[in-house]
Amino acid sequence: MERLQLKQMLTYFLKEDIGYGDVSADAIFVHEKGSATIIAKQSGVLAGSQVIEMGYHLLNEQIEIELFFRDGDWIQSGEKLARLSGPVNDLLKGERVILNILQRMSGIATLTNEAVKRLADPSITICDTRKTTPGLRMLEKYAVRVGGGKNHRFGLSDGVMMKDNHIAACGSIREAVKKARAYVGHMVKIEVEIETEEQLKEAIEAKADVIMFDNCTPDEVKRFRQMTPDTILTEASGGITLDTLPNYRHTGVDLISLGFLTHSAPSFDFSMNMEWSRKGGNGYVHA
Length: 287
Known about the structure:
Elements: H1 3-18, H2 23-28, E1 33-40, E2 44-45, H3 49-59, E3 64-67, E4 74-75, E5 80-87, H4 88-119, E6 125-127, H5 137-146, E7 160-162, H6 164-170, H7 173-183, E8 190-194, H8 197-205, E9 210-214, H9 218-227, E10 233-237, E11 255-257, H10 260-263, E12 270-278, E13 281-286
Parallel strand pairs: 6-11, 7-8, 8-9, 9-10, 10-11
Antiparallel strand pairs: 1-5, 1-12, 2-4, 3-5, 12-13
Helix pairs in contact: 1-3, 3-4, 4-5
């Protein structure tokens, strides 16, 4: 992840939650020091350890952070992910925002890892789509990579993708690709979405760089791939689920893009246990 953007994002998220101060923590804790442990409550792939470090250091550079796992590691339920030490106020102020992001990213990484395992075909790359949460795209797409997938376009400016509406407006795939070639530079690839054999032949003749087989059955994907020159990258997408992924194994397609990796990933379950010491005794809370 790009650190400057991550810093800006975390600053905004923390300001949104804290507002003009944490009235709960500030009313109870003044100078107390404490420790907190982040614990996994399920098993899966970790993504977002940078969020812990940068998020807490934005609140207080003196907070000590010890990470026991790295992004991409498989963590078991009950294992300790990190230990934090510092002012109790600051540990509590960052808890919810940091855990929310960590849960979102690790959930996506775990789901992506499961998709790669279900497909069980290293010749095919699992990738994401633009179906991400507004404002979280960098984090969510990073989590896909951590889980073993790759990224499709980050945004509309990254590449041309001619869908049915673009093609209909131009009258044909050939005309749509022609207009795109005249507009973009030589570094920008052009992808065309097709659903029929006739459209596939037209996309090949138009010399598209990438052809997406949209909402096609595994048998159609295999047949369309055999018809496509090796110089053209092929992608399958649309209606593919975790349960149907194995059916696309050995179809020969280069990529399978899955929107559910980001739009339907369940949050990973983490909790933070906090301990502090103060005059007159010790305290413990499960947050």
